[in-house]
Design goal:
Helices cover 39% and strands 20% of the residues. By secondary structure, the chain is an alpha/beta fold. It folds into three domains: 5-143, no CATH class; 159-391, Mur-like, catalytic domain (UDP-N-acetylmuramoyl-L-alanine:D-glutamate ligase, 3-Layer(aba) Sandwich); 402-559, Protein-Tyrosine Phosphatase, Chain A (Alpha-Beta Complex), CATH 3.90.190.20. Strand 3 and strand 4 form a beta hairpin. Helix 13 (361-377) packs antiparallel against helix 14, helix 16 packs parallel to helix 17 and helix 17 crosses helix 18 (482-494).
């Protein structure tokens, strides 16, 4: 017998649907959506819904009818089970035969029983005696042992939660570094592991709820910084019940088409979850230049601390008028604004190594976000200055804008995992190359990215660089044949008139090919996800040296007379 259940997820913490633990059911309601109108109406009446108009099959009216009926089924069974009031969210998916149903839970075993009862009633479409069935399944839920309570952590130390499409790892590392400059014992979790006081505790992607748990379990911890990715929120929910400061760097197209998230607006909904569980006395730190991010302040119980590179941004005026604070760039200084006081300069942008003398606009924003979060926590101004000025790209931020000098040319290793990240990488490459020299770029993507994104990467890279190659992320192909990815990359490159795009099995081999062709003044860059450590080791064995902040400043100054790059 077929079932309407596609997937059941028990979310342990705040999620897209509720600010507490919830059960999420993905349901196939084809029987209800494709049934003749009389049969659909009869089912609605049998489950206790009054007058309804199902609408024609395949219409938006029929989809809304299915949403209404499904929500009523959940509430009716809960009532039969003795649950007086229950929050229910029913949302459509891109496939109009599927719905997502979510409801909060306090006891896991009973919540699972309720989920099973919902499925049983939906599976009984067209059967007789539906009222009796709902009474039966409701009684079963009522008699089910309660089971475990949600494992959501209630932190006893300050927590900063960081999310966004680009910059969340860099920003969370910066905040942790500032915390250590303030003399605190700091734990933080990110996409490349769990750290405590700068030491790796556990390697792996810990940007989900397990990362928060690992961090908060460290003995002696005084501050926790958790990188919070969309995947963890969707699969298990946020691992902590609340945070003291939430930070959202930006929201751009990434991972679309996965986990029922098909649009940038839906992605923003997911990322806004951390702002909704920020303590009322805390701060919600948002990017004032990103409309979706800026709007998140309206759903947060916390005060807003906005950041923007533009001191005259309307977002800054709005937040200051609301009684919030802002961090911006004023006369070359990272500066804090508050309606009640004079502007407070912290340090010059050019003295923050991660900004590459102000060349990296994204990292200027990351520095503004980190300063806002640290000050929102109440960390000393001196610690913020020390932390930002001593945070070095290669040493403190591996895999993000790491720059080397080799035989008179520059090599850059950066994640650059989406269109915005690649454009930021090209901005840096153009900013340090000598006039008349070339940009050589190794492209790459995990196998689960949508074709339009991979094609866009091919087009952006081919347009912006003088030579491109494909370096596969062999450990992240996720079942996709390399030849298929190559075809999509080449399609994107061909759209801007570039046909010569060789491919290599790994990021390292692509980098080795491009480095062999580089001349003094050129810039070679690698979009690196898996081979960062081996790339670093190989470059050093070739005689490459890590660029110091002084080296970076010198490169930027030498390149200043030349503006723009190929295709600009």
């Amino acid at each position: 017998m077929s079932t309407s259940l596609v997937e059941l997820r028990v979310l342990d913490g705040a999620n897209l649907y509720f600010s507490r633990a919830a059960v999420k059911l993905t349901l196939d309601v084809t029987a209800l959506v494709d049934a003749p109108a009389p049969a659909a109406k009869a089912y609605a009446q049998a489950v206790g819904l009054g007058a309804t108009r199902p609408g024609r099959i395949g219409s938006g009216f029929r989809q809304r009818f299915a949403i209404r009926v499904t929500g009523h089924v959940v509430r009716r069974i809960a009532r039969e089970a003795g649950i007086g009031r229950i929050g229910v969210r029913v949302r459509p998916e891109s496939d109009n035969h599927r719905l997502v149903v979510a409801f909060p839970w306090a006891h896991e075993q009973r919540a699972r029983a309720l989920a099973a009862a919902i499925v049983e009633v939906l599976d009984a479409f067209g059967a007789e005696h539906l009222p009796e069935l709902m009474t039966t399944v409701g009684e079963r839920v009522r008699n089910e042992p309660p089971g475990n309570v949600p494992p959501t952590i209630r932190p006893k130390v300050p927590v900063v939660a960081v999310t966004g499409t680009n910059g969340k790892t860099t920003t969370s590392r910066m905040i942790a570094h500032i915390g250590r400059a303030a003399g605190l014992h700091v734990g933080w979790s990110s996409t490349d592991g769990v750290y405590f006081d700068g030491e790796l505790v556990k390697y792996g992607d810990f940007s989900g709820p397990s990362g928060a748990g690992q961090v908060l379990s460290q003995p002696g911890i005084q501050l926790a910084v958790t990188e919070t990715a969309r995947g963890g929120i969707l699969r298990r929910g946020v691992g902590v019940a609340s945070n003291d400061v939430s930070v959202v760097t930006n929201v751009t197209a990434d991972h679309l088409g996965l986990g029922g998230i098909d649009t940038v607006d839906q992605l923003a909904e997911v990322k806004a979850v951390i702002t909704q569980i920020t303590r009322p006395r805390g701060w919600c730190v948002v990017n004032g230049d990103d409309p979706r991010t800026f709007a998140m302040r309206l759903g947060s119980p916390a005060k807003c601390w906005v950041f923007s590179r533009d001191p005259d941004s309307p977002s800054i005026r709005a937040v200051l008028d609301e009684g919030g604070r802002a961090t911006t760039v004023l006369d070359g200084f990272i500066t804090v604004l508050d309606q009640a006081t004079d502007p407070e300069p912290l340090l010059k942008v050019v003295d923050v190594p991660m900004t590459l003398s102000g060349l990296s606009h994204y990292n200027v924003e990351n520095a503004l976000a980190a300063a806002s979060a640290a000050l929102g926590l109440g960390l000393p101004r001196a610690a913020v200055i020390e932390g930002l000025s001593s945070f070095a790209p290669n040493e403190n931020n591996p895999g993000r804008m790491n720059m080397y000098s080799l035989r008179g040319f520059t090599v850059v290793i950066d994640l650059a995992h989406n269109e915005a990240g690649l454009e930021a990488l090209l901005e840096i490459m153009n900013g340090v190359r000598h006039e008349g020299s070339r940009l050589l770029l190794a492209l790459g993507s995990p196998g689960d990215r949508a074709d339009d994104m991979v094609s866009a990467l091919g087009a952006i890279g081919a347009r912006g660089a003088d030579q491109v190659a494909i370096g596969h992320k062999s450990e992240y192909l996720r079942g996709r044949p390399p030849s298929e990815l190559e075809a999509v990359f080449r399609e994107g490159a061909a759209s801007v008139g570039v046909d010569d795009v060789p491919a290599y099995p790994t990021e390292l081999e692509a980098a080795q090919s491009l480095v062999a062709q580089a001349q003094p003044g050129d810039v070679v860059a690698v979009m690196s996800l898996q081979d960062r450590a081996s790339l670093d080791g190989w470059l050093r064995s070739e005689g490459a040296t890590v660029d110091t902040p002084e080296d970076l400043k010198s490169k930027v100054e030498r390149a200043q007379p030349r503006v723009g790059g190929r295709g600009n």
